[in-house]
Amino acid sequence: MATAGASAEVGVEGLTAGASLLSRPADEFENDPSVEAMWAMKAYEHAEIYFNILCSVDPKLLKLTPHDDMIYKTFREEFPDLKVDVVVEDEMKSPEGKSKWRPFCEKFKNVVEDYSFGTLLRLDCQGEYSEKNSILVSRIQFYAIELARNKEGLNDTVRTNFRPKRLAKNQ
């Protein structure tokens, strides 16, 4: 999952233009492949940074948002038995899963900035981000699951099994 090829393909001018485009309302766009590529690159950059932090810091000490405690409490009230060590994509993205997640997500609409942004989530918390171990979820779903993993000790082995990676120069 490298962004270097996509960055080179879009070019500096395209990335600069894309940065200003990404701040505009989504309803102004149709399915523009260049905008989708920029969103994918942004999601990947977020994933790289987050994973490097997990490799460097005790996950129990991480603060992802100013609302971590509320997100975690609400998540565990609404999803008390959801296993977060290995996420099953079908459970999240099935019609039944979506009907459970949608009300949860909407509770944070005016609380968590960019709550609906597409964000990469590792399916198995024991692994790193890869094409097979990542799915796209909303930012609030990412926060809910990663906060649970951090607070419940499921991300503890990341620091012992992985080292931070050098970030691409185009970031």
TrEMBL record:
Residues 35-159 form the Polysaccharide biosynthesis domain. It holds the Pfam family PBDC1. One of its GO terms (cellular component) is cytoplasm. Gene3D superfamilies: yst0336 like domain. InterPro entries: PBDC1-like_dom_sf, PBDC1_metazoa/fungi, Polysacc_synth_dom. It comes from the Eukaryota. This is Polysaccharide biosynthesis domain-containing protein. It comes from Gryllus longicercus.
